[in-house]
TrEMBL record:
Domain of life: Eukaryota
GO biological process: carbohydrate metabolic process
Alphabetic keyword roster: Glycosidase, Hydrolase
Protein known as: GH18 domain-containing protein
Molecular function terms from GO: hydrolase activity, hydrolyzing O-glycosyl compounds
A Pfam family recorded for this sequence: Glyco_hydro_18
Length: 315
């Protein structure tokens, strides 16, 4: 069956996503930076990183633990944020940066998936339980049925073949989505491929596309010096995944990721072009921790986020 209608679909920019909590710095970032939220955009997601696996002899156990600062990004702060900004969702990113945090499960499929489901549920319920404490007090910011809205699969290194990755992660996504205890907390599932693990993520998407809402492709990991090269890669990825309505373009403000890999101006120009052609549903930025600190490239905090969101507003 042809999927040309998905590849050639007309899409408007509806979503902006920002990774946050992935580093300890800066000390000034003690809360969600609400000042960068454009309320006219349909969806604004903060993605908390990371829910990271414990490892034994380099193998993943399926037991995930929180690595972000819970005081900075607490349940009460999420609730307050959602009360004041109706377009906000908060997602937990599962996986991690660096070769020391690969996808490489220690156990057989059923055991690993069961452990992963239980530990991820615990991360989500921990937020919900903290929120219930506020619901029972006079200081409740706002009553919510759910505080976490979904998960983001974000392993930058994968030490298995594509079928193993797809089967393990796809089975986990299915179980989490079917879990009655999480029926209101798994509204959003995204995946975060880059060039080096594209084969595994593409297989996962093709096998479980009905369960995956967004593809956060890390364009910032590739050498793309011109807007035309960026747009060409985006168009090729649309064909690879068979859809443009779910494919988001990612850029980084992290100085540890060389700006020479993708030219900032080229990325902005490319996004502007794609939005003008009604070909780009959204953008994500890695990451708020670095964006909060002025530097030579970004002299004002969150400069790139504001520039990119203005492209949405101009449409």
């Amino acid at each position: 069956m042809s999927h040309s209608h998905l590849i050639n679909a007309v899409v408007n920019p509806i979503i902006f996503r920002e990774y946050i909590g992935v580093k300890d710095l800066p000390a000034s970032l003690v809360d969600f930076p609400a000042e960068i939220i454009n309320d006219s955009i349909e969806q604004f997601h903060f993605i908390l990183g990371f829910g990271r696996e414990d490892y034994e002899n380099g193998k993943g156990t399926g037991n995930f633990h929180r690595t972000w600062n819970i005081e900075r990004f607490s349940a009460a702060k999420v609730a307050k944020l959602k009360k004041e900004h109706k377009n906000v969702k908060v997602i937990i990113s599962i996986g991690g940066q660096g070769k020391q945090y690969p996808f490489d499960p220690k156990d057989a499929l059923d055991l690993w998936v069961t452990k992963a489901e239980d530990s991820i549920k615990e991360l989500i319920h921990d937020y919900e339980n903290h929120l219930k404490q506020f619901n029972d007090s006079a200081n409740c910011p706002c009553p919510f049925d759910n505080i976490i809205d979904g998960i983001d699969i974000n392993y930058e290194y994968i030490n298995t073949d594509k079928d193993t990755f797809s089967t393990y992660i796809g089975s986990l996504i299915q179980k989490l989505k079917k879990d009655c205890d999480l029926s209101k907390s798994l509204n959003v599932v995204s995946i975060a491929p880059n060039e080096h693990v594209q084969t595994q993520y593409r297989q996962l998407y093709l096998d479980y596309k009905s369960h995956i809402d967004w593809i956060n492709y890390k364009f910032y990991d590739q050498a793309l010096p011109t807007a035309d090269e960026f747009v060409t890669l985006y168009s090729n990825l649309v064909i690879d995944y068979g859809t443009r309505a779910k494919l988001l373009a990612g850029v980084s403000t992290d100085p540890e990721i060389p700006n020479t890999k993708i030219n900032r101006d080229a990325f902005v120009a490319g996004c502007k072009s794609l939005i003008g052609e009604k070909s780009l549903p959204g953008i994500f930025v890695w990451n708020a921790n670095n964006s909060a600190s002025p530097n030579i490239i970004d002299p004002n905090p969150y400069l790139l986020e504001r520039v990119l969101q203005n492209l949405f507003a101009a449409e």
